[in-house]
Structures are given as structure tokens and as C-alpha cells.
Amino acid sequence: MTKLECERLPFSELQIVVQACREAGLSVIVIGGLATGSYLQRYRRYTEDIDLVVPATDVEELLTMLQSCGFDITGTRQWWKASKEMGDHELIVDVVTETIAESATEQSHTLSLSPLPPLAVVTPFSKELGELACEIPAAGPEDLIILKLLSGRDKGLIDLTALLLESFKRIDLTALHEKIATAHLQMTMNLAIAEWRNALRSGELGYLWEATYDRPLTRRQVASLLRKIERLTPE
Questions:
Q1: How far is Cα 61 from Cα 40, in angstroms, rounded to an integer?
Q2: What is the DSSP letter of 138?
Q3: Between 3.30.460.40, 3.30.499.10, 3.30.590.20, 3.30.200.20, what CATH number should domain 1-139 receive?
Q4: Strand, helix or coil for residue 84
Q5: Would you give the DSSP letter of residue 103?
Q6: Where are the chain's structural domains?
Q7: What is the pLDDT of residue 105?
Q8: How do beta strands 134-137 and 119-122 pair?
Q9: pLDDT tens digits, 48-95
């Protein structure tokens, strides 16, 4: 199966899932790489991951709907994996409730789903698949920053770096700091931001960036990123 075909599958299924959720009146939002990509043009990256958030009160209905679409469900009380074999490829949809916990640290962040975030256009990385773009509520950049810093994954730092380079003006810094304070994550965020800053200064992040986008971070971009990262830091 080609890379293009591998990307077509999740977006084709996402369209079906989004339409089914609308018809059922389910409050579902997208997070992860797809959500981040909805705020980007130049620095969107290839991803097959579908990460959905649903209120705890609606999760059983969503899982039942996914089963009706041919998915097998495994998981726990807060996280479920819906998987579907499609030829030699396995499609995965991760489902979580609004309180998202990072297992390594046992810390969590709760997304507000009432009202739902605005609709975002989730677009495939490949231009040839542009017709598969769909509208779905996406987590705001402030929530994405917190979630990706909590996860501590390399691809999360790549996404956040892209977000700062391309869409920094869309980040509400006051709202970000309030969310961090509400979740009592000031120390955790400060440590994660320090690691992000160190990875940028050491060149480690630049290596990951070039491997992802086939282009280096310029000195000017690094300097700009360091200034922007400083503004993210909670007091």
C-alpha cells in the first residue's frame, strides 16, 4: 500500500465518523496532529493518527457507533482504541474523554466541550487528497500546547514549533496561562518548556525538524522561537 493510499484511509473514515457523529448529535472534537494541522499551511506534517475527545456521558454511544462502522474496540475507562483492518493496513482511532491524563506523570488537563470549539478544516497532508478535507471542532492552540507539552513526545515538539512559527498570533497567551493555572500545571509546564528550549538551543530539535520537513531551522527562526517560547512560560 502506497503512502498516499495509507493517508487516504484515515481521512475517508474520518469523514464517515464525523457525519455519523453529527447525525447522532454527539459532541466530538479532534486533538493531536490533525488538530494542530488545522492551524497550519506551510508546516502541516503527514499523520495517519485520528485522536478524538468525547464527553464521558457520550463515550458509549460513540464507541457503539464506531463498532457499527467496523471498528474493534479495546481500552479502559478514559482511553479507548478503535482499530479496523483494511487490507494490509490497520486504521487506528484513539478516543479519550474530556479529562486527558498523561500516564507517565499521572497529570491531566480537562478540555471544555461546552460550548464546542469552532469548526476547523482538517486537511490531508497530500494535495492529491484535498477532496477529503472535512470540518470538525478542533481543540484550540492553547489546549494543544498543554497536551503536547504534557506528553513530552518528539513529534509533539515538532508540532508546537510549527505552531509558533506559523500561527503564534492565534495563541491567546492569557487564556493559556489561565488554563495552566486552573489545572495546577505551572511547574510541569515550566519544566517541559525548559526542555523544549534546551532541545532548540542544542540543535536536537533542529535535527528532528529537518528530518520531518527536509529543511533546516534557520538561525533567525531559532531566535524567534526562543522569544516566543519565553512568552508561553507561566509565571
A1: 32
A2: B
A3: 3.30.460.40
A4: strand
A5: T
A6: 1-139, 140-235
A7: 67
A8: antiparallel
A9: 889 999 999 999 999 999 999 899 999 877 889 999 988 778 889 999
